[in-house]
Structures are given as C-alpha cells and as structure tokens.
TrEMBL record:
Pfam families: Slp. This is Starvation-inducible protein. InterPro entries: OMP_Slp (IPR004658). Residues 1-23 form the signal peptide. PANTHER family: OUTER MEMBRANE PROTEIN SLP. Keywords: Signal. The keyword Signal applies. It comes from the Bacteria. The keyword Thylakoid does not apply. It comes from Vibrio ponticus.
Length: 185
C-alpha cells in the first residue's frame, strides 16, 4: 500500500512539472517587474517612456536602419507563455526597435513574434495612406515562434467502431473527415 501511495504521489508531481514546463515563459521574455504591461489597449492608452512591456503578434514589416532595426508588428493577445494567440483578432499595431542589424529573412513579414522591452512614446507613420499613431518599444528580448500543424482524421460511417483495417480504406474513402490543428511552438 505504501508503494502504491508513493507511486501515485510521484505521478502527480511528474504531471504537475510537465504541465508547468509546457506553459512556462521563455527566458528571453521573463521580467521580474510586477507592473509589466501585457495588454495592448492598456499600453496604447498610456505609452509612457520606460514602462516595461511584453507584447506579441505578426510581423508586418522590417526596416534595417543605420544602427538599429525597426519592426512593425500587428498585435495579437499573448498567453501566459508569451505565445501570440492566432485564434484572436488583431488588436492594433506597434513598432519595436532592436539595436543593430537583424536579418529580414529571420524577421520576415507573417512570422509570429513576442517582444519584451521598454515603452518609448509614440510615432506617426503611414499604413497604406492612413497615418497611424504607433506605440513604440525598445526591445530587450524577443522570441520568434513557429506554427506547427497536425491533421486529425476522424473515421465516420455506419460502423460501431472506427474502421482502421487495410480492407476498410478502399471501401470508405468518402467517410473520412479531418481537421487541421494549429499550435504555436
């Protein structure tokens, strides 16, 4: 009985550690500031200089300047692990400056990214023919993300159980249904 109780406890601890590891914040996005802003609307209303900010989204454009790189980001809400939520609608745009040269291929438009940095006021710049008031961040750290896709195939039909044998494939092509699951990694 003692061994069974120990095994149950060990499994619970292992499961808890696994869950914690899956949702932990990457080191380059970590901050010990209790007043860190992670909500775009809050930051946009008060883009004070030197306020710590962690935001993410989709890269819209990259411009390498003489001594820094300007990155325009379409904001998406981020989760507790800093991952942009691709199931949400965009919530505006912001500009990030990184010191030095950053390769435009690595920071290509359409990539998901999250930044940690300090607020540096606003700047007006065009989006198409519209002048947009961008909140500005000087980045201290960032994380580029990938979208991984999985296909889940569901067998449907008149069977009580899903048909998985070699003989079922030829007879029931029209009964296969599937969906694509996208995860940010």
């Amino acid at each position: 009985m003692k061994n069974l109780r120990f095994i149950k406890s060990a499994l619970c601890v292992t499961a808890l550690l696994a869950l914690t590891a899956c949702s932990s914040l990457p080191e380059q996005l970590a901050s010990d500031n209790p007043n860190l802003i992670t909500d775009y609307a809050t930051w946009q209303q008060t883009p004070n200089v030197n306020t710590d900010v962690r935001l993410g989204g989709v890269i819209a454009s990259v411009d390498n300047q003489a001594d820094r790189t300007r990155i325009e980001v379409v904001n998406l809400p981020i989760d507790s692990a800093g991952k942009p939520d691709i199931d949400q609608e965009p919530k505006g745009r912001f500009v990030v400056y990184l010191q030095g040269f950053e390769d435009p291929v690595a920071f290509a438009p359409g990539r998901l990214i999250t930044f940690l940095g300090s607020s540096n006021g606003t700047e007006v710049s065009p989006v198409g023919e519209f002048d947009y008031d961008f909140p500005v961040m000087n980045a201290q750290g960032y994380r580029l993300w990938k979208i991984e896709e999985r296909v889940i195939v569901n067998e449907t039909g008149s069977y009580i159980y899903p048909c998985r044998g070699i003989y079922c494939r030829d007879l029931h092509y029209s009964t296969r249904q599937g969906r694509i699951i996208q995860d940010v990694k």
